[in-house]
Amino acid sequence: MGLVIYLLIRLLSILFQILPHSSVLRLGSALGAVCYRVLGGRREITLVNLRRSLGSQYHEDHLQEIALESFRELGKTFAEFLCFPKWVRHGLHRYVTVRGASHVQQAMSAGKGAIVFIGHIGNWELQALVYGQLLSHPSAIAFPLKNQRLNDWVNECRGLTGLEVIPKYQAARQVFRHLRANHAVGFIADQNAGREGVFVDLFGTLASSSRGPVTFALKTGAPILISLDERRPDGHHVLSISEPFYPESTGNLESDVLTNTQFLMKSLESAIRRNPGQWMWMHDRWKSRPDKAWLIQRARRKGYETVIVE
Q1: For every residue of the chain, which 3-state class applies, written as one string?
Q2: What is the pLDDT of residues 2-54, one digit of tens each?
Q3: What is the pLDDT of residues 129-185, one digit of tens each?
Q4: What's the whole-number mean pLDDT along residues 239-264?
């Protein structure tokens, strides 16, 4: 079955690259709409998340429209990914405008590398191509796919302009190595991080968030760039890169990770509120809940003097 799926994806990639971008977007949108109807479990997670986060702002009918749009946008991202070889051949400037490219060089000029914080909004995958053109030796952390053939091809597409993919389970040592060499490392870090994550506010509810971006920044002195994409109604992308952000450090690592991760999540939340249909709401973002006993146990294991439970 794995081989069949791989061959089907490769065939779709060939076919989609023949089509104009507008047709690719329509097909991707249609695929997303079908998934919305068929994947009842993911649809329910999406609606629960939206009611929790935006229920006080929008009526139920509007929330359902956002939910469907979120699936359609994900379908567009999938369809566009299949066309990445064509995008590179024809020139990325035809598909994406980068705002804040000078901020990347500003961050790198410090000589300590840079951490790029990326959210699942717009087409986050295209950032692999953009940073491959903006920098030498960029890298990003990604979960490997179980289908090895498909995983290799996906990473090949991500690396079309020079990006190196770091497997999630081997990340720490390689991240330190890249930062010491003054390279940029991307973290797609807006999903549930389990009980090991740091719990910060996201849309009014505590959400377990990755400690990685801020922890590496604090330990190495590398600045953080917040890099978020927006798909415009005509299908063109605008990638906005923030000015370098140096996490506040008080000497209390646990407190500093919480404070600065909260800043990242609030920045992401602001972007989502501007384009709620472009975030990946079908992920069970608030699945993990704070467990005081576990946090105390973790603090003792790590040797922290203080425990932060909010």
Answers
A1: CHHHHHHHHHHHHHHHHHCCHHHHHHHHHHHHHHHHHHCHHHHHHHHHHHHHHHCCCCCHHHHHHHHHHHHHHHHHHHHHHHCHHHHHHHCHHHCEEEECHHHHHHHHCCCCCEEEEECCECCCCHHHHHHHHHCCCCEEEECCCCCHHHHHHHHHHHCCCCCEEEEHHHHHHHHHHHHHCCCEEEEECCCCCHHHCEEEEECCEEEEECCHHHHHHHHHCCCEEEEEEEECCCCCEEEEECCCECCCCCCCHHHHHHHHHHHHHHHHHHHHHHCHHHECCCCCCCCCCCCHHHHHHHHHHHCCCCCCCC
A2: 999 999 999 999 999 999 999 999 999 999 999 999 999 999 999 999 999 99
A3: 999 999 999 999 999 999 999 999 999 999 999 999 999 887 999 999 999 999 999
A4: 96
% of the chain with per-residue pLDDT over 90 = 90
CATH 3.40.630 fits 92-302, yes or no: no
Domain limits of the chain? 92-302
